[in-house]
Amino acid sequence: MKSFEIFTKGIIKENPVLRILLGFCPVLAVSTSAVNALGMGAATLFVLLGSNTVISIFSKKIPQTVRIPCYIVVIATFVTIVKLCIQAFSPELDKSLGIFIPLIVVNCIILGRAEAFASKNGVFHSILDALGMGIGFTLAIFILASIREILGNGTIFNYSVITEIPPVLLFALAPGAFITLGLIIAGVNWLESKFGGK
Predict the structure, then answer these.
(1) Which of 70, 55, 45 is CA-nearest to residue 138?
(2) Which of 24, 146, 158, 189 sees the fewest Cβ atoms within 10 Å?
(3) DSSP assigned state of 38
(4) C-alpha neighbours within 13 Å on the C-beta side of residue 14
(5) Quick check: 139 and 15 in contact, CB under 8 A?
(6) Helix (H) or strand (E) holding 152
(7) 3-state DSSP call for residue 160?
(8) pLDDT at 1
(9) For range 26-43, the mean pLDDT
(10) Distance between CA 14 and CA 128 in Å, rounded?
């Protein structure tokens, strides 16, 4: 597989949220605002990048019988680093994201990439895979959060964008997250069937 293909597959073809349908818990929970989405996306990207790199380096030295616990320890280390950094530099974001930053440890996207890719490939390709998957995750959660914030609050990044039409409260609530994500996934599948299958 070529380097460019490894990088782009996580953004488009194998987007973890929109194509593989993983990581819905944080996506649905923190997508109430674009700021939260970017914070969660950046945190996930950092953990993916760090864990993929370390696991790729040490994969040959980790015994097969304890590989999953070892991967979780590596992932938990990077989650702790990102949690402490967010607490130190952005307490408001830390308060908004709450428990969902520590829950990155059990995010199936990160453990899945460690098991399926980083443990079987070199460091450079593992970094490219982490970047692609992290950007794809961030893009998906950002699109969802932007739609929800604009339609539910009439704002984006705390700037008012819709003043003539009253906000639709449904989009700011949990059912709005499910409906919007379902419509986005349906749109992506339609585009794939229309243009990607050739």
Answers:
(1) 45
(2) 158
(3) H
(4) 16
(5) yes
(6) helix 123-153
(7) strand
(8) 66
(9) 94
(10) 14
